Amino acid sequence: MTMNHAEVQGFVRSNVVSKDGTNIGYLSIGKGPDLLIIHGALSDSTRFTRLAKELAGAFRVHVIDRRGRGMSGPQGQEYSMEKECEDVAALQKATQAEFVFGHSYGGLVALETARIFNLFSTIAVYEPGVAIHSRPDEWNWLSAYETAINKKDHRTAFAHFVKGSGHSPLSKLPLWYAKLMLSIFIRGEHWLELEALLKQNLLEHQEVRRLAGTYSHYGNLQAKLLLSNGGKSPRSVKEMIFALNNKIPNSSKLEIPDLEHLSPENRFEPVKVADHIKRFFLT
Asked: To 10 degrees, what angle do helices 188-195 and 154-165 make?
């Protein structure tokens, strides 16, 4: 995925080298305590420039390009959550950041990094990609997604993902109809950006499935933690936030009215998310 120059104007581009030698790029802006932002699946650093700018008045914000996109190297043949955590650890070492914000899969990366390395004093996540249950039937869509990817039928693969992830009203509709609606509303440059990340998305959600049902491990987290979600998000997301809040001692939960899963990204309502993040980190 290429970066739009207008989207990164005012940011400084830098890189670190992760444990396995992969180059990890990131964008930085602002002054103050260092704060890392970890984006989710089907996303990259440029989707979080508005959120970063909103936070830049209070923090030195660093937005990572997770491996497999943007300024960073490939996921690699031995991709795993552990490698994602090593990438974040390398960035934390370079910046000495004590604060981290993670969205969706990036929220899962933040929690796993904290569990493995205990690097941050304060963590905020927005609808982290944590699967509370490990029921196999919940992942039937993933094999269909992989089959479609292997056939290079990217529109069908994307429809399987949107239905399977459960964040869209299309989840309950027939596949053909979901595919039609997505083809109408997501096209042009936006579709090309998403399409370029479909293979990465497969490996990342295979890791979500592998970690499903292991959230009790987060009971040992030492950092102060904010678990947030949007008021418009489905019940399953709110149940996940509730379960994590019950399991993690030093955690609090926050539901932000009128927001949904993608609200932290540029196209939606990052300003409202930034207000709550800022308040939490500075309290």
From this structure: 80
Side chain identity, residue 282: L
**Of 155, 177, 207, which one is at a domain's C-terminal end?**
207
Same domain, 20 and 99: yes
DSSP one-letter string for 151-213: TT-HHHHHHHHHHHH--SGGGGS-HHHHHHHHHHHS-HHHHHHHHTTHHHHHHHHHHHHHHTT
Please report, for the domain that includes residue 120, its CATH number. 3.40.50.1820
10-residue stretch averages of pLDDT, the chain, 283 residues long:
56 97 98 98 97 97 98 97 98 98 98 97 98 89 97 98 86 93 96 97 98 96 97 94 97 97 95 96 94
What is the domain range of residue 144? 136-207
Q: How far apart are CA 97 and CA 111, in angstroms?
A: 15
229 and 276 assigned to the same domain = yes
pTM of the predicted model, to two decimals? 0.95
According to DSSP, the β-strands at 60-64 and 23-29 are antiparallel
